[in-house]
Amino acid sequence: MSDVTIPPSDSLAVLEKQRSTAETFGIPLAVLLEITHRCPLQCPYCSNPVELDRSAKELTTDEWKKVLSELAEIGVLQVHFSGGEPTARKDLVELVKHASDTGLYTNLITSAVLLTREKLSDLADAGLCHVQISFQGIEEGLADRVAGYKGGHRKKLEVAKWTRELDLPLTVNAVMHRQNLHQLPDIIQMALDLDADRLEVANVQYYGWALKNRAALMPTVAQLDECTRLVEEARERLKGRLTIDYVVPDYYALRPKKCMGGWGRQFFNISPAGRVLPCHAAESITGLDFLSVRSNHSIAWIWQNSEAFNRYRGTGWMKEPCKSCEFREIDFGGCRCQAFALTGDAANTDPACALSPLHETIFKQAEAEAEGETSRFLYRNFAGGTLEPENDA
Ligand code: SF4
Ligand code: FES
């Protein structure tokens, strides 16, 4: 779904550590399955592509089951059922059951608003291992406004409670931006009150829908510094009680993030229509042909051999300044989707890097937007977005 930061289970984290560098190009241990782009929420920072897959294109139940079996066979250990909103698919329980029967660890990444207690209980009985619920804020007014969905916040709180009653581990995912960063201390407390194991404080990453909404979402440098301070303080204070993952917006960094662990190195996801992608935003890059599980190729073949996965793998594709940079094997030139969105060429250095010739221009633009007046959202939907009514912003 919209808020993709993927928590490895503790057991997987141990396996990740054991994996040697030489094996980095092996099949990833965890795969993100975006089983639908349908979603009742309209978050303005959704990580789905602006051009969404309609339901008629979605893989069928049998096709998803075949994908799950194939993933288990090639060594994947964990799948994240995501979207869109994965509970919008009527066959979710059947898919979770199939994944569980093939030995896969299953995580549900959900907005929670479509769940009933009975449905959640059915998912638990089917073998669901973990639930991640996204929150848009701490109080109903703002949270429901960000999601573009009335009553959503209250329902999320209820589902979080059921999750723990059913003894399922819970991750709270909080996507942060200029309009809700002031609520961070209360969000941390909310995660504690909900008895979550993990909290993800994920600052918005600016591509796709979020790039369209950048002027309404970009935090100021001061807000971001305060956010970092609060996270560090809470991590120390809550050691052993709550794990806090932290994702910063790289606009204000000097070096970019190692996006996806490097293109085609540690991660792939499968879109609702079955395309195997090096990252959830990859389809925003034009000129790449992403193969589908409906093609004649196996998933393992697509991962290892397809042109799209190999185009930006490693360092051979790099231009200057990345080409001769000492950090090229550390961050792999940052984010290809961000480089494409901001420069028009995915092979350029991610402008989040201070060595990119565009870094200063983009940083200044972002700083100006952060100090600006824009607060209206362009809501995510199948029609290419709807501007929030002026009176609601
Ligand atoms: Fe990373 Fe490229 Fe910047 Fe070097 S120039 S720090 S490799 S993005
Ligand atoms: Fe696609 Fe960074 S989001 S490579």
- Tally of helical segments: 15
Measure the end-to-end span: 24 Å
Largest sheet: 9 strands, mixed
Helix-strand category: alpha/beta
Q: SSE order in H/E notation?
A: HEHEHEHEHHEHEHHHEEEHHHHHEE
What radius of gyration results from the CA coordinates?
A: 20 Å
Share of β-strand residues: 5-15%
Ions, cofactors and other bound molecules: iron/sulfur cluster, FE2/S2 (inorganic) cluster
The geometry reads as: globular
Which runs of at least 5 residues are low in confidence (pLDDT < 50)?
1-24
Q: How many DSSP-defined strands?
A: 11
User: Which percent range fits the helix content?
Assistant: 25-40%
Mean pLDDT: 92
The strand order across the widest sheet is: 7-6-5-4-3-2-1-8-9
Description of the structure:
This protein is an alpha/beta fold and 393 residues long. Helices cover 34% and strands 12% of the residues. The chain has a nine-stranded mixed β-sheet with strand order 7-6-5-4-3-2-1-8-9. The protein has a two-stranded antiparallel ribbon with strand order 10-11. Helix 3 links the parallel strand 2 (78-82) and strand 3 (105-110). Helix 2 (61-73) packs parallel to helix 3 and helix 3 (92-101) runs parallel beside helix 4. The radius of gyration is 20 Å and the shape is globular. The structure holds iron/sulfur cluster and FE2/S2 (inorganic) cluster.
